[in-house]
Amino acid sequence: MADHAADDLAGHTDDDPAVRAADGLAVRTPGARVERAAADEDEDVWDTIDRLRTWLDANRAHGGREGLLLRVLKLSEEVGEVAQAVIGATGQNPRKGASHTWDDVRSELCDVMITAMVALRTLAPDAREVFAAHLASVADRSLGTTPPPPPPPSPPTPPTP
Predict the structure, then answer these.
(1) Cβ neighbours of residue 88 closer than 8 Å, sequence gap 6 or more
(2) I need a surface site. Which of 3, 116, 130, 157 has the fewest CB within 10 A?
């Protein structure tokens, strides 16, 4: 089945076959209960992302430039899992039928977001500010705090004879 975000792993044990965290984002030890990524409800999302990045850095197989590239490449894998879940939710594969639910799709989208945030945090120590500035720029461009430019004028209509 699809990978699930760390929140979906709360309450499972390591030997539970249903437990499979995306890129090992949940901290697990044999027989131990899986802890929520954000145990404290008041914890900031970026604080959780920083803790996940720190944990991944301490447990990675490859470091340096290769590790960075693999972390960014992980996004492609997660996006592929979204596509797989959508295909499964819509029953588009006649051999498998409806193999996923829309809850699976939502979970996979969350995995994409988490993976992207961890990758951004890996590239930018000030990821919170980088993301906030970029989001504001996209919102301004799309939603417009400044009016969009006027459409180009229509070509003149030729006079009728």
Answers:
(1) 96, 98, 99, 100, 104
(2) 157
**CA–CA separation, 87 and 89 (whole Å):** 6
pLDDT digits (tens, 9 = 90+) for 65-110: 999 999 999 999 999 999 999 999 999 999 999 999 999 999 999 9
62: left (phi over 0), alpha (psi -120 to 50) or beta: beta
Please state, in angstroms and as integers, the Cα–Cα distance from residue 130 to each residue in 60, 83, 104, following that order. Answer: 25, 28, 29
Copy the structure tokens of residue 26: 């949940």
Beta bridge partners of 13: 33
Q: Is the pTM of this model over 0.90?
A: no
Tokens of residue 18, six digits: 């249903």
β-bridge mates for residue 4, sequence order: 21
Q: How far does Cα 104 stand from its chain's mean position?
A: 13
Displacement of CA 55 from its chain's centroid (Å): 17
Distance CA 138, CA 131 (A): 10
| Tokens at 73, concatenated | 């490449």
Alpha helices in the chain (DSSP H): 45-58, 64-90, 102-123, 127-143
The number of C-alpha atoms within 13 Å of 67 and in the hemisphere containing its C-beta is: 13
